[in-house]
Amino acid sequence: MIDAFTEESGVAVSQNVANALVDPGAYGDLEQVDTALAWLRREAPFTKVQPQGYDEFWAVTRHSDILAVERAPDLFHNEDRSVTVISQEAERSIKAITGGSPNLSRNLTRMDNPDHAKYRAIAQLAMTPAKITERSGRIREIAREFVGRLAERDGECDFARDIAFLYPLRVVMEILGVPEEDEPLMLRLTQEAFGTTDPDVNRAGAQVSEAQRIKDLTETLAELRAYFADMTIDRRRNPRDDFASVLANARIDGELLPDYELFSYFGLVAAAGHDTTANVTAGGVWALAERPDQVAKLKQDPKLVASYVEEAIRWVTPVKHFMRTAMADTEVAGQKVSEGDWLMLCYHSGNRDEGVFTAPYEFDVTRRPNKQIAFGYGPHMCLGQHLGRLEIKIFMEELLPRLESMELSGVPTRTKSNFVSGPKSIPIRYKLT
Description:
Helices cover about 50% and strands about 15% of the residues. Helix 14 packs parallel to helix 18. By secondary structure, it is of the alpha+beta class. It has a 5-stranded mixed β-sheet with strand order 3-4-12-9-5. A 3-stranded antiparallel β-sheet has the order 6-16-13. The chain has 18 helices and 16 strands. The termini are far apart. A hairpin with a 7-residue loop joins strand 3 and strand 4 (about 55-60).
């Protein structure tokens, strides 16, 4: 039933479509989200919506419009409002905790220039393709270890839980400097941080109110900050060859980073550096388990692994959206955007844009070109993109020569989250040489 009208686009938008954009449960199966986004791309690709319990915002669903907003960081800011879509109740809870700030942390995703450029520079030199390639030998050792774990499991496992969550965790924690014995703690905390709306992974282990969800998230972030506060003290006394030492001793304008920004930076590296790659690693294998023809193509031509990586990234798009705030009156896609307007950049939709991708709902390891925008675009483009690509590529290079067959042995499930989400369980049956 059509029960909401968008004057800006002149197209009626149902409340169900608006609600699907923010409903964590809809992202748990994707069909509802894909249906809503496909309708918006076709009928109202840049339009205002107001889900129940949320402030009004522009839904930016086309590939080209997302890029247009990303190209104008001085016009569309990250920090003035929440950088993720949050309900009115959640926003009130956050502001009560922070004393008025719309965000619970202040990392690169929640900064604008000049601070964004200064803070990004700290990590940028360590994340260049050349620097990441220097780590390829160790990453390959870790990949072989986890392929070995598959071989030890008698042909069945939950690929998400047993492999995909743990392999990139090991890589990023080694880079950061977190000891192996603390990896289970980091896994729990990072999943709690991104999975606040999923009772299987959130701190409470249950469905909770918005106020309780924000309270639990605050406690998770506090636990992360306490851990990295101890690490900071150690690395300032005893610097090592790890990224924790880089962050702990980094200076901007001659001063060490303020604690709030420093520990937010640590949390971003730990969580985003792990969960996004884990989701793509898992989702790519899920796609292959349902498509033996694609596995056959990869085995026949191993050079296709590079295009497989890009297709897996497009297919999963682990970061479903980011929000931006207009800093002045402007125009996008022929629509008048006012100063203070909130915009949702729907990356999942952009990566299924029929005007850019042929057969976007098909998984194709030979897809070229592949103009996926899962890493964002412009100055906020993901710093860890080269590391993530390399991890997935190396894992597949180690798995494919040993893989004889693979299929699902149960029903996979996805995390219920409208921000960062992907597979949380993928039961598979397989044969390795």
